[in-house]
Amino acid sequence: MLRHTRLAGESADYLDAREELRLAEIDLMRQREEVAARRRALPRGPLVDDYAFIEGPADLDAGDTPVREVTLSELFTATDRPLIVYHFMYGKLQTEPCPMCTLWIDGFNGIAHHIARNADFVIAAAADVPALRQHARNRGWHRLRLLSCGSSAFKYDLGSEDKDGEQDSTVSVFTRDGDGAVRHFYSTHPRMADDIDERGIDLLAPVWHLLDLVPPGRGDWYPSLDY
Fold it and tell me: Can you give the pTM of this predicted structure?
C-alpha cells in the first residue's frame, strides 16, 4: 500500500478505501493516456478552406483599429507546428459572452506563453472585433490572439455554429502541409452524447477537477461573469 500522508489516526477502513481509490485513479490515468495516444494517431485529416478572419491591433489596449484580414494558413508560425483554435461562444444569437467559455479563456490567457512553446493558439468568435476586444479588455486577456470570423463559414463548417447562428464552444486542431495547405486534425465539443451535454471539454479547465477533490464535489457550480 502506498501511503500519501504520515498522519496518525487513519482508520483501517479509510486506508483500505484510499488504496482502492488510488488503484482506480491509476486505471483512469492509463485510460486517459490511451485515449490521448489514439487521438495523436488519427489518420491525416481532410483539407479545409483557407478561411478568413479579422483581427485588431496586437496590443489589446491600442483600440480596435486598424483591422486586418488574416487567413487560417497565416495563423501558423511554422510548418511543423499545430494550430489550436478555441471557438468562443459569442456573437450572432449568442448576444452575451458565454460564462463557461470566459472561464476557460481566463485560464488560457494565463498559460498562453507555455502553449506557444509547442503550438500556435488563437481564440475565434462570431462577435465583431470591437465587442470581442472589449470583453477581452474587461477580462485582461492580453496574452491571446483574438479573431473575429462571423462573416465566414469557419464556425459553421467546424460545427460550432448552426445555420441560425446559434453558437457552441468547440476546440479544433489543424496542421499545415509543406505546400501551405491546411488540414483539420481534430475537433471536440462539450456535448458528447444525448445524455452528456457539457462534459466533453472539461479537461480544458482545472476548476471542475479541483472541485471534484472536495467532499461536496462540483454540484451545480457554474461560472459567472460577475468576477
Answer: 0.94
